[in-house]
Predict the 3D structure of the following.
Amino acid sequence: MRNKRLTRSSVFIAVLLLLNSCEYIFFKPIPSCSAPGTFEYLWSKVDEQYAYFDVKNVDWDAVYSRYSAKIRDDISEDSLFFYLGSMLNELRDGHVNLFSEFNVSRFDITLLGPQNLDYRLVKEHYLGNDFYTTGPFQHNFIAGGRAAYIRYASFSSGFTNDNIRFILDRYKDTGGLVLDLRQNGGGYLSGVYQLLSHFITTETPVYKTCIKSGPDHNAFSDTEPVYIAPFDTLLAYSAPVAVLIDRGSYSASSMFSLAAIALDNMFLVGDTSGGGLGMPNGGQLPNGWTYRFSITRTLSLDDNNYENGVPPDILAFLDPADKALGLDTVIEAALDSLLGP
Amino acid sequence: MKYFRSCRIAAILLIASFSAAEEFPKLSRHYLHLDMGAAYGNFRDTGTSPLRYQGFTAASTAGFLSANPEFRWGLRTDIFYTAGIAANAYLLHSFYCASDVFYLRRIPPLSAKGLDFFAGPALSGLTAFTINDAYQNAMVNVDIFSGLFLRSQLQYAFKRPEWGKKLAFLRLQRPARDYVLAFRLDIPVLRLNIRPEFPYVLNGTQTDIEKIFSRHFFAGGLQLQSRLGLTRFLKNGNAIETAYVWEMISTGRRDIYLLESARHALVFAFYFRLN
């Protein structure tokens, strides 16, 4: 009786142990987490999925040749990070990053042009002390009440439709708005659609988009227009809007700038935007570090690719002479267009 | 009108054919069962990471079972969660919601006294949500798997005899109890998978939801499920089962990015007799 029980228990335990490792018979082995293995993996991922090799004019095979020679098995983690980060920075793309526990690699797009904003100047001479703060927006009347200035510093700061309605209602009798997106580094794309929906009266195409569809550098899905629906056809703001941009207006801000081109009542003033019109995809490397890079393209309605920056309709840079007089050259250029010189 | 008449005749014939073909014994017992279990799970989706995440998994199941000496059918819904860690730093959350419906018949040539072999189809659907905030825009993913399985169940029913002993003033007694030791294995016949397309993430620059959810449909891969359980029947007709559950999915070569997932769980199930 005891023997029988023992046999039964042994069979039960043996079956359990057998099942416990069963899946590894069917699963593929994990790739090498060595330095060369990690380098190969990252290079291939970018090669197959990155969306802007042509726009950035980068020969990715040449990049492989240059960097693979530097990656050895005995390289330190810090050096490997340096080389992988440098390799990614060959793409000159602010949406490309490598993340480890000890560092984050980045390509700082804002350094490609001057910071075309002096917020102290804006506060002292345009917003004043009595400016309103509604959600993430700072705003006030300017030019003797004939126009309004609205500062939006980051699309990462969410807002409500009530916020926008309050602002637009306050300035409904002005001759135009100055929407300042200078040094707005982007954030949530949904904020772009939400903000724009208050400036249109019909469903409006604002840009075109496509996404990588295969490993070939030119493999993309069909290009499709993106439409934005109006928030309220009766309450939409219809006076002209000057959108201020500079090289620090990146990602969602550049998307907003691109959409502004498509709208009749908006125009761009300042420096070329930072670009960053692709949606970044993220993932992990065999050694555990994570990465991201763009895998979509966003084109203007006339098929121009402004990944490297959306150009302004009116080019304007801060002038030290104007600054000395308490004038923001970019805002003044916008006001000249909105209200006349 | 003609169409409706044809449908009615077809329905009557269908019901009649079932009634004629099956003479089911009227001994079916219906159970509502609730399972709870926890153990080890692992997960790897090469669309986001070549690493295998391993960690804790917890599962809960609710279902209905109709059992009869000749056949059994049932349906169930599983919810399970896995928290997996890779590279000692990254945490992946995986939520699965699965449901299946099955119908098994006893196969007499493969059965003997006390040993019953059941086989039949099982239809299963599974939706998997994974979240890993380290992956930026690819941090959330949804996969859908459905499949037709050949489910086989080998079960051995035995009775533990009554036992009693008198020790001085104590009278030790253990009543007779009925047990069933069962092993179940699901082998896939047809599997359909819905997984992310080549770039893996959605085109977030698009506002049209239909266009955003472009997915990759394909058939194939391997999904195995097994359950080894010991069920003890109580006097009131209810039952308690202790089971070891093993499930694995590999989406296979037709997938753009291979997904591999497995879980092992020690499960306690309570069967409440309904009739």
